[in-house]
Design brief:
about 750 residues; Beta-galactosidase, Chain A, domain 5; about 25% strand; elongated; disordered N terminus
């Protein structure tokens, strides 16, 4: 830790400048106490250092993004200072009154502490002091929270996770104002609340503190940062290496196990952004206090990769909503705002500024100042979104989350395949699940989490019961389900033991492709999915081609679900709509929550079955599927067995075959046309796909697409990625120059 030896008197409350900043000399690092007591630890010493503060004091005098953010924050906090302090006895679960008051208190203290450092106006420090003195009275009187969650109990909040988040913010506020406090006030606050909360999160909650999980990350961050501020190196070591300091728990083990080598977090993008905050915040504190640890270089810069990967795992500003994800969360979330600022402060990568500009939030930190200054100078360059297989697991070999992008822009066509590990308790049972996005909109949808976060009337803001009974179940996703039973029989413990294998990943100019497989989702059944995003040259057309194969030695019912967003337009086959009476699609494993709204036995005289819908983005989408083995098509809508109306009324097509040991679903999703109700025109509402087929030739898989105008395209790929593989098709010899190639055939 940085130590200093000083013993000066420090005068505050001097005349303020036009920005509200006290006109003081930056010679002193905020380390001087009002009672002239000597302090060993330099403050602030966490995310901000005194050097950062000096630069921020100068920056708020000049017009620009940073000054604007400062003035807005100051106006808000000044209005708060006129209101009475409120530190209520805890009684509510997440979203309830007392819960939200305590959340708001740590945010207000955090902001007031920052304003004190910049302005040195004692009113901000006095506010933090007054609130903390109230908490010092309250906290010793608390036992278990009345709405306690048994898995991770709290006292101030319903779960210890929130207690850790409170301390992460509160210790930074204390760090900012400790130089203004008397020795007596410091002792009261530290002994009354800061130390007790830190001990509650560590010594008294070993099951969470030593856990490799985002709850453990927040706890170790809170305790470690408190250790730096209160000059308790022992707490820092325990935060880094576990309560026994052996490395079997703690922050470093979490860095080792929760991120893959390319920075993918095993619970998925939603929880990656949430866990990112304690990771980068504690890392920044470690860097400022113990730069010799080189924390941002650890594991080949894994934290910097994690920040970048969090941004990559988004589309049009929103995170890919796999697992327990709330779909409205995106890159403007405060966790990634902090991450991008810290990453830019270290790397100066101008592409990160593009994300920061989209976030449109300026942090009052040293790194936030760097971002603001760079944006004021227009230094940002376009952030490059990439086609990438984000390996899962500590060594990156537990499958992958695969993102196929037609180009590098934020609104490009994107297909994702979830070939990841389970994702711990927040994981959903959708191995090899598919999603598709186009022109800024989700087309093939993932349900995400069944939850109304912080809405008390909806199950106290918790995950709804339907999260277990529907959202996590396989039928709620775009994947294959055998015998109406979820993958791993819906048992998380079993799911955590297995993961798919990525057999092929190819990224060419015209075709982005992934093949993945798993033989443990069901006993005795092997599942394999190949998904390709195909760009037709000179046509500005993107196709999603999907081949899903199920193999077994015994007959099964196979369902392949496609959940979609939009308005059904038409099909090329007759169906029976259930208009007078509805019944659920099944009785368990999520099927009980789907109304069967229509059904059809496809006509075997037709080579393909086609379903068309219109999305709110004004484009038409047609799903074409090869007809074979008595294919059935079921129309479904969520909402059955849902007396509290908790579920969204999402829609799906379910392709079904019965009594088959082996079946291969071959499908193509085409985006086409335009519907403009304002200008009253419709273009190309009909699909251009005439036929679709699949063959195997000389060890090469062939997908043949025929258009209405007679043009034909051939997509050829090989699992083994052999170079210069040749194959014969329709009397001609073709050569594969890469793992996958697109060939344009002569018109018939």
């Amino acid at each position: 830790m940085k130590l200093i030896n000083v013993n000066h008197a420090f005068v505050v409350g001097l005349a303020l400048s036009s920005t509200g900043m006290a006109m003081i000399s930056p010679t002193y690092a905020g380390e001087i106490l009002s009672d002239s007591t000597k302090v060993q630890v330099e403050h602030p010493n966490l995310v901000n250092t005194f050097n950062d503060v000096v630069k921020m004091r100068e920056a708020v005098k000049k017009s620009g993004r940073f000054q604007a953010a400062f003035l807005a924050k100051q106006a808000h906090i000044d209005s708060v200072l006129t209101q009475p302090i409120n530190v209520p006895v805890p009684k509510d679960a997440g979203g309830g009154y007392t819960h939200e008051v305590h959340k708001n208190n740590y945010r207000l203290m955090f902001d007031a502490g920052t304003l004190f450092q910049i302005t040195q106006d004692p009113k901000y420090a006095n506010f933090v002091k007054s609130v903390l003195l109230e908490y010092a009275k309250l906290y010793p009187t608390l036992g278990a929270h009345p709405e306690v969650k048994s898995s991770n109990p709290g006292q101030l909040f319903w779960q210890g996770l929130n207690e850790a988040v409170w301390l992460v913010h509160t210790i930074q506020a204390y760090d900012a104002v400790v130089s203004h406090l008397s020795k007596a006030d410091r002792k009261t606050i530290e002994k009354g609340v800061l130390e007790p909360v830190a001990l509650f999160l560590s010594e008294q909650s070993p099951q969470t503190f030593n856990k490799v999980h985002n709850h453990g990350t927040w706890a170790t961050c809170a305790v470690g940062m408190t250790g730096y501020v209160l000059d308790k190196p022992e707490w820092v070591e325990k935060a880094l290496y576990g309560l026994d300091k052996s490395g079997t728990g703690g922050f470093m083990r979490q860095l080792d196990e929760l991120f893959s080598p390319n920075g993918y977090y095993n619970e998925g993008p939603y929880y990656q952004r949430y866990a990112l905050m304690p990771f980068v915040t504690f890392a920044k504190a470690i860097e400022n206090n113990q730069p010799e640890r080189k924390i941002f270089e650890y594991r080949d810069n894994v934290l910097l990769k994690a920040i970048n990967t969090t941004a990559q795992l988004s589309y049009n500003g929103l995170f890919f909503p796999i697992n327990d994800a709330i779909k409205s969360k995106g890159i403007d979330t405060i966790e990634l705002v902090n991450g991008i600022a810290i990453a830019y402060g270290i790397t100066s990568e101008t592409g990160l500024l593009d994300i920061a500009k989209q976030q449109n939030r300026v942090l009052l930190t040293g790194d936030g100042l760097k971002v603001a200054n760079a944006l004021d100078k227009g230094l940002q360059t376009d952030y490059q979104f990439k086609t990438q297989a984000f390996g899962d697991g500590a060594t990156g070999d537990n499958g992958a989350f695969v993102v196929l992008r037609s180009d590098s822009s934020k609104n490009a066509s994107v297909a994702t395949v979830k070939a990841t590990s389970q994702g711990l308790g927040h994981g959903h049972f959708d191995k090899l699940g598919l999603s598709y996005y186009d022109q800024g909109t989700e087309i093939l949808t993932d349900y995400g989490a069944a939850r109304f976060l912080n809405v008390v009337a909806k199950f106290g803001g918790r995950y709804l019961p339907e999260n277990d009974s529907y959202a996590q179940q396989s039928i709620a996703h775009n994947t294959l389900i055998a015998d109406e039973t979820s993958h791993f029989n819906g048992v998380t413990k079993v799911g955590n033991q297995h993961h798919p294998k990525v057999d092929l990943f190819a990224n060419t100019d015209q075709v982005k492709l992934v093949s993945a497989s798993i033989d443990t989702a069901y006993q005795g059944i092997q599942l394999a999915r190949t998904t390709a995003l195909v760009s037709i040259p000179d046509e500005n057309i993107d196709w999603v081609i999907d081949v899903f194969n199920a193999q077994s030695s015994t007959p099964h019912q196979y369902d392949l679900a496609f959940h979609y967003d939009g308005h059904f337009i038409e099909s090329n086959f007759k169906y029976q709509a259930h208009t007078e009476q509805l019944k659920p699609l099944g009785t368990a494993n999520g099927y009980q929550h789907l109304w069967l709204t229509a059904s059809a036995q496809t006509e075997q005289s037709q080579a393909i079955s086609q379903l068309t819908w219109l999305n709110d983005n004004g484009r038409f989408y047609t799903l074409s599927t090869v007809n074979d083995n008595n294919l059935n098509v079921l129309f479904a809508r969520a909402g059955a067995n849902d007396p509290n109306f908790n579920l969204r009324e999402d829609k799906a097509f379910v392709l079904r075959v019965k009594d088959q040991a082996q079946h291969q679903f071959v499908s193509l999703l085409e985006a086409h046309g335009e519907y403009n109700p304002a200008k009253e025109y419709t273009l190309k509402s009909k699909t251009s796909i005439q036929n679709l087929s699949f063959e195997r030739k000389d060890g090469v898989s062939l997908i043949i697409v025929e258009l209405n105008d007679g043009r034909q395209y051939l997509i050829a790929y090989q699992q083994q990625n052999k170079q210069a593989q040749t194959f014969d098709f329709d009397g001609k010899t073709y050569k594969l120059k890469e793992a996958v190639n697109l060939f344009t055939l002569t018109k018939k």
